[in-house]
Specification:
Layout lengths: L1 H27 L2 H35 L1
Length: about 70
């Protein structure tokens, strides 16, 4: 049970770090650089979010099953 909560906490922290990194880059970069970066980040973000969602749902299913 502690491992499940630790895993969920880890992914919440990673998500927060990625969002703060994105905000920092928005504030400190030029518009053209940001556009290029945003396209690559958008692809990475969607993959990461789907992975996060899958793990989250798997953990919820596991908790309910046991």
């Amino acid at each position: 049970m502690q491992l499940i909560f630790a895993t969920m906490l880890y992914f919440h922290i990673r998500w927060f770090i990625l969002l703060t990194n994105l905000l920092t880059l928005i504030l400190h970069s030029r518009l053209k650089q940001y556009k290029d970066f945003y396209q690559s980040y958008k692809n990475y973000e969607s993959k990461l979010y789907h992975c996060y969602l899958l793990i989250h749902l798997t953990l919820i299913y596991y908790i309910k099953k046991h």
